[in-house]
Amino acid sequence: MPSLATESTRRAALRWLSELRVAGVPRVRVLFANHPQYADLTPVQYAEGFAWLRSMGMVTAAGQPVVEVCEGELWDDVTAGAVPRVLWSQAAEDAKRVVGAAGEQALLRLLRQGGVPHVRHVAAESDAYGYDIEAARSVSERAHIEVKATTDPTRLVVHLTRHEYEVMAADADWCLAAVLVGSDGNAASVATVDRRWLHSAVPADSGRGGRWESVRLTVPACALAPGLATEAWALLPVGLPSAPVWAHRSSPLTSA
């Protein structure tokens, strides 16, 4: 039988679920302790809210939300024993990895078919690079491509790690490729996510007590362009196919 919780505990738990979608437990704890928006509850109440989530199985041991409950509902149904909508499961995590790997392989094929002479799948060697594919036509024309793959043509949601972001900030050749994976495992469309938008979208560290390590971003149409390019040159100037997905702008990338 699920344990009952006070209204303040449930309110704290709702805030934990909301903030844990974009930041880790240490950073959210610092946010609750320092931001005036959350000052109506005490640190003890926030701790009770998080403990209640864990006791109910609504977050993983690592603090990953497993459920989504609409704010405004104080979980009367949940405390009565109803099952909230599941956001995370091992099966879903495995499926996401399969789609990610398919996106990388699909882009590798496109680059090689497109005549790019040097294409290397560095993600198969190590996660330390901060990107998945190295591609180059010459010493001065090279790209370090981070691939984010999805099977959803209606919206683009990407998860960016702190390491990937820091590599992007230091590497002018880094670019983020969004790949729509079709039912045949090939790339149905490719688009580039604007670096300036990524810089503006990631959260700011609130202080010495915490820092974000990964972030979930819903990419707007204005931050997408069909095709694949760094800031200096285009690898795949045209998206595949031409039908728009994710409602990105229609003008293709052109070679520099």
Molecular structure report:
The protein has 256 residues and is α+β, with helices and mostly antiparallel strands. The protein has 2 domains: 7-86; 90-236, 3-Layer(aba) Sandwich (Trna Endonuclease, Chain: A, domain 1). Helices cover 31% and strands 21% of the residues. It is built from 7 helices and 12 strands. It has helices spanning 7-19, 25-34, 43-55, 76-79, 90-113, 162-170, 195-201; strands at residues 67-68, 85-86, 118-120, 133-136, 142-150, 156-161, 174-181, 187-193, 214-219, 224-226, 228-229, 234-236. The strands form 4 sheets. It has a 6-stranded mixed β-sheet. Strands 1-2 form a two-stranded antiparallel ribbon. It is elongated and about 60 Å long. Mean pLDDT is 83; it is low at 76-83.
In short:
The chain has helices at residues 7-19, 25-34, 43-55, 76-79, 90-113, 162-170, 195-201; strands spanning 67-68, 85-86, 118-120, 133-136, 142-150, 156-161, 174-181, 187-193, 214-219, 224-226, 228-229, 234-236. The chain is α+β, with helices and mostly antiparallel strands and 256 residues long.
